[in-house]
């Protein structure tokens, strides 16, 4: 039998013109994804914006499309040089680049005309627990200094951070179903306490007061996986209300269920439940055969070293043509089929 060709993983691209732009290999890790940058640029549209810690400029380039004037600052002269070259490549003319420490009063003075101040600070690459104190520049000092210029301040934070010592809206964003960024909005930019933005669709969900979550212990005909930005922003009750679905919790996993099919950008995946049976290998195999399975994606907690052994133990006995998912929910086996987005 001919060997199956391994498909190359698609390259993760942060900017549509990335190949033409100048950067050092590490810079891309910290550069803002274009979808996130564009979303923030829409939300922070104004006359003059200050971009503090601009790096190689990915966020600043998005601001340049929605703001008349962008002042982009970085302490690292090499980054400023790369960002300026990149602006030339992209033919962007309304960004002024400033090299300097954003906490230096000379720099603060240069930014005194800003309507909005945005900062994407530097964090250390790995950390046991993300903390505000390891972020550079010092954000408490930054907010104290720039609050004298404007109350409209937005700051990017690592999404894993737990304690945020500011009175702010926390906006979690995801790109293609993966958690990407946390942006905090203070002062007049704040719209609510917690929000989620799903990219590239731009669907936004804000927290509401007094919304009660509807829970179910019973699994209905459809099963949904919430987008990680919704989970991180703790918007489960809001999602349940918005979609008319019920929260169906399984250990630490969060699902929703309904008897009518709901299409909504806040769901990362939707499934049609085909069969529920005891979590017994024989019964599962019977059900998989009945539903003409060929591939079985294991969607429950499996030790990674056992994943293929278990999956092959089913697939070696199947002759259908469908790709089905096997969940373990409330100790039952649930066989389900993913619903493609065009349905
Ligand atoms: C996460 S990167 C910015 C990435 C950028 N927003 C983008 O979209 O490509 C953080 C930047 O903050 C800069 N930085 C750190 N401390 C600073 C300070 N005190 N003043 C100015 N820039 C600073 C670093 O040099 C680094 O380039």
Give an overview in words.
The chain is built from ten helices and 16 strands. It has a nine-stranded mixed sheet. The protein has a seven-stranded mixed sheet with strand order 11-12-10-13-16-15-14. The mean pLDDT is 93.
Q: Biggest sheet, in brief?
A: 9 strands, mixed
Distance between the termini: 35 Å
The global form is: elongated
How many structural domains? 2
Give the strand tally: 16
Strand order of the largest sheet: 3-2-1-4-5-7-6-8-9
- Kindly estimate the percentage of residues that lie in beta strands according to DSSP: 25-35%
Mean pLDDT: 93
Overall helicity: 10-25%
CATH superfamily of the largest domain: Vaccinia Virus protein VP39
- Order of helix and strand elements from N to C terminus: HHEHEHEHEHEEEEEEHHEEEHEHEE
Number of helices: 10
Proper CATH architecture of the largest domain: 3-Layer(aba) Sandwich
Ligands bound here? S-adenosylmethionine
Rg (CA only): 24 Å
Summarize the structure.
With 343 residues, the chain is α/β, with parallel strands linked by helices. The chain has helices at residues 25-30, 34-43, 58-66, 77-89, 105-110, 139-146, 228-232, 236-243, 281-290, 307-315; strands spanning 48-52, 69-74, 95-99, 116-119, 153-157, 169-175, 178-186, 194-199, 203-206, 222-226, 246-250, 253-258, 267-278, 293-298, 322-329, 332-338.
């Amino acid at each position: 039998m001919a060997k199956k060709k391994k498909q190359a993983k698609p390259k993760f691209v942060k900017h549509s013109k990335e190949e033409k732009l100048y950067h050092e290999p590490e810079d891309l890790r910290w550069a803002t994804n274009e979808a996130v940058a564009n979303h923030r640029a829409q939300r922070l549209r104004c006359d003059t914006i200050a971009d503090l810690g601009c790096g190689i400029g990915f966020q600043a380039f998005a601001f340049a499309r929605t703001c008349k004037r962008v002042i982009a600052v970085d302490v690292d002269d090499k980054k400023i040089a790369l960002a300026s070259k990149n602006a030339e490549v992209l033919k962007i003319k309304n960004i002024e680049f400033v090299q300097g420490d954003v906490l230096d009063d000379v720099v603060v003075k240069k930014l005194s005309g800003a309507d909005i101040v945005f900062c994407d600070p530097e964090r250390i690459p790995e950390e046991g627990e993300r903390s505000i104190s390891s972020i550079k520049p010092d954000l408490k000092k930054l907010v104290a200094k720039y609050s004298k210029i404007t109350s409209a301040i937005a700051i990017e934070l690592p999404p894993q951070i737990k304690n945020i010592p500011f009175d702010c809206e926390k906006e979690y964003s995801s790109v293609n179903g993966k958690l990407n960024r946390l942006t905090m909005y203070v002062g007049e930019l704040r719209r609510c306490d917690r929000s989620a933005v799903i990219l590239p669709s731009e669907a936004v969900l804000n927290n509401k007061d007094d919304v009660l979550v509807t829970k179910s212990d019973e699994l209905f005909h459809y099963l949904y996986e919430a987008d990680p930005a919704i989970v991180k922003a703790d918007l489960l009750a809001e999602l349940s209300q918005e979609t008319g679905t019920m929260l169906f919790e399984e250990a630490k996993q969060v699902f929703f269920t309904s008897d009518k099919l709901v299409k909504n950008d806040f769901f990362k995946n939707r499934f049609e439940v085909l069969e529920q049976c005891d979590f017994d290998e024989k019964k599962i195999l019977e059900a998989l055969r009945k539903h003409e399975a060929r591939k079985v994606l294991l969607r429950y907690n499996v030790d990674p070293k056992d994943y293929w052994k278990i999956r092959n133990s089913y697939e070696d006995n199947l002759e259908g043509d469908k790709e089905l998912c096997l969940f373990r929910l409330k100790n039952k086996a649930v066989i389900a089929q993913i619903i493609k987005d065009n349905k």
